[in-house]
Design brief:
heterodimer; A: six-stranded mixed β-sheet; four-stranded antiparallel β-sheet; globular; B: 11 helices; binds adenosine-5'-diphosphate; binds magnesium ion
């Protein structure tokens, strides 16, 4: 049976956001304002790396949260735990009301079709065009071909690549490739987008454009978790900042700043 | 259903866009089939040769020069009465001499020696063919009766006996040899196919990781690879059939000419057995490809 976040939610408690144009489960976002919950999460990588040690936080639907910290502080681990590339050693992680701490292998694809992921190295399929890369995320979810033909060009337009859908990744600049990967993350209208150092391979101007794109996506209501150690970006956002230090939450501040060390 | 067609499309797309990888894989598959078919062809030829040599084996019984033609004819009748005997031909003394001279025409010493002798040193003879070469010992034994024995000067019984033994040993060994050869090539083919597919999947491991990250379930990831290996098997079998058809139509006259008198018609063999032969070859490749793909994905990709 197909499991979706909606099936584990309570009744609506807030009105729909106008521009969402929900795709099935998407309108579930406002049923429960808490989107991501980390409860006392620890993560050990064998043999004895303690990547996270007792991390707790909650992220509400529609928030734009930056997760910062020095290299090795556990930021990527938090991201991986959210889309179940790793499982916590102890503690609990909820996406909406879905406890994914011990998610079954066969449920992982279902979770991932509801979370968009963006990476520093773009992770595009090299033998597929920009259009096909974006379409792929819908194809694996069993979306109809007609819907794919309608939605993909639209999303490519949103990220500013209306003309370049036919190009292969190697025919695109770094910034353009990242836009394709954001389009892919966006195309199934996920409640959450997790971006791990999405600007790490981009120059400052391109990086700012990408971050702007994320804020626009956030304006549509999508929860954004942005992992970055770029101080200018964090300080320019004026949004909530969770700072990690040695696998612990060192600070968690609304309209936060990048903390030094 | 929708997913199934998508998986087919992804498989075909991936084959085209990874042209060189596909090319190498199909080539390896074709090479595998070439070895298999070489073994098949050699086996067919060897069997035909052994049969034909067996069929050609004959024993010549020479009679003393004073035996009458009647005696010889009565021996011929006696032999024809045996169920193992296929054919007995009568050779006159003159024909025997002529044949002998013909067989030794490049041997001046023997010809000179023959001239020294007065008259015809050779007597009449009977040439015996059997249905089965292995029946000759029995047939020759039957000539050891007191009635005929005095008239018989010589039977090239001894020579033929060893020839027969060599021959039947040979056919046994040929079969064993081909079995070993086939196993050996089969083993090498499996290794090569295994390795080619393993490399192909290794090359794709990053893509597979990406597919999983955007929510592809295991079948969406596995499906195209498994299908690809079936398509490769199909293409390779088709190419092999084309190779066999074109090579044989060109070479068959020469092969037939080379094996004069032997009943080898590889074209006929392949046409009558096309379905099982190529079906089995496709089956072997597909099975190998699927097995290897499944194994490599489990081992290297954890999908
Ligand atoms: N797969 C892994 N195996 C072992 N150790 C790991 C693995 N991934 C990360 N680590 C370790 O966990 C710690 C946190 O890593 P990470 O979450 O990637 O930090 P960040 O993204 O903040 O740089 C580091 O010490 C890192 O070496
Ligand atoms: Mg990191």
């Amino acid at each position: 049976m197909r499991r979706s976040l909606r099936s584990v939610r309570g009744p609506p408690s807030a009105p729909p956001v106008e521009s969402l144009a929900p795709l099935g489960w998407f309108d579930a976002a406002w049923y429960n304002p808490i989107m991501i919950t980390f409860k006392n999460v620890t993560k050990e990588y064998p043999p004895k790396t303690h990547a996270l040690a007792g991390v707790s936080f909650r992220i509400e639907a529609g928030e734009f949260v930056s997760i910062t910290g020095q290299s090795g502080s556990g930021k990527s681990t938090v991201a991986k735990l959210i889309f179940a590339e790793e499982k916590p050693t102890s503690g609990h992680i909820h996406i909406g009301d879905w406890d994914i701490s011990n998610i079954r292998h066969s449920d992982i694809p279902i979770l991932r079709r509801q979370i968009g992921v963006v990476f520093q190295d773009f992770k595009l399929l090299p033998k597929k065009t920009a259009f096909e890369n974006v379409a792929f995320a819908l194809e694996v979810a069993g979306e109809s071909s007609k819907r794919i033909r309608d939605v993909v060009p639209h999303v490519l337009k949103i990220v500013g690549l209306g003309e370049k859908g036919g190009r292969y990744p190697r025919q695109l600049s770094g910034g353009e490739q990242q836009r394709v990967s954001i389009a892919r993350a966006l195309v199934h209208r996920p409640k959450i987008i997790v971006a791990d150092e999405p600007t790490g391979n981009l120059d400052a101007i391109t990086a700012r454009e990408i971050i702007e794109l994320f804020t626009r996506i956030n304006d549509f209501g999508t929860t954004i978790v942005l992992v970055t150690h770029d101080r200018d970006i964090v300080n320019g956002l004026h949004r909530r900042v969770i700072t990690l230090r040695e696998g612990k939450v060192a600070s968690d501040a609304e309209k936060g700043k990048y903390l030094l060390a | 259903m929708r997913s199934f067609f998508r998986i087919i499309r992804f498989a075909l797309q991936s084959m085209m866009r990874n042209f060189w990888l596909s090319f190498v894989t199909v080539s390896v598959f074709v090479l595998t089939l070439i070895t298999i078919n070489s073994v098949i062809i050699l086996n067919v030829l060897a069997n035909a040769s052994v049969k034909s040599v067996e069929g050609r084996v004959q024993v010549t019984v020479y009679f003393t020069s004073d035996s009458s033609e009647d005696t010889v004819k009565s021996v011929q009748g006696y032999l024809l009465g045996l169920s193992q005997v296929k054919e007995v031909s009568y050779v006159t003394a003159e024909e025997a001499l002529a044949n002998f001279k013909l067989n030794h025409q490049n041997d001046p010493v023997i010809l000179a020696a023959l001239d020294e002798v007065d008259g015809n040193p050779l007597g009449q003879a009977l040439k015996i063919r059997a249905y089965n070469a292995s029946d000759f010992p029995f047939i020759l034994e039957a000539l050891e009766t007191p009635e005929y024995k005095p008239f018989i000067k010589e039977k090239n019984y001894d020579n033929y006996e060893s020839a027969l033994k060599v021959l039947s040993d040979f056919s046994e060994k040929v079969r064993l040899g081909f079995l070993i050869l086939a196993l050996f090539f089969g083993f090498i083919a499996i290794l090569i196919v295994f390795n080619t597919i393993r490399v192909a999947i290794y090359v794709h491991r990053e893509e597979i990781g990406i597919m999983k990250l955007v929510g592809a379930n295991d079948w969406f990831v596995r499906g195209p690879f498994l299908l690809e290996s079936i398509f490769y098997a199909l293409i390779a079998t088709a190419i092999m059939a084309a190779i066999i058809a074109s090579t044989l139509s060109f070479a068959n006259p020469y092969i037939v000419a080379f094996f004069q008198g032997v009943d080898v018609d590889l074209v006929a063999y392949y046409t009558t057995n096309a379905a099982p032969l190529f079906g089995a070859q496709f089956g072997i490749l597909a099975f190998l490809g699927l097995g290897t793909t499944a194994f490599a994905m489990r081992r290297y990709l954890r999908v």
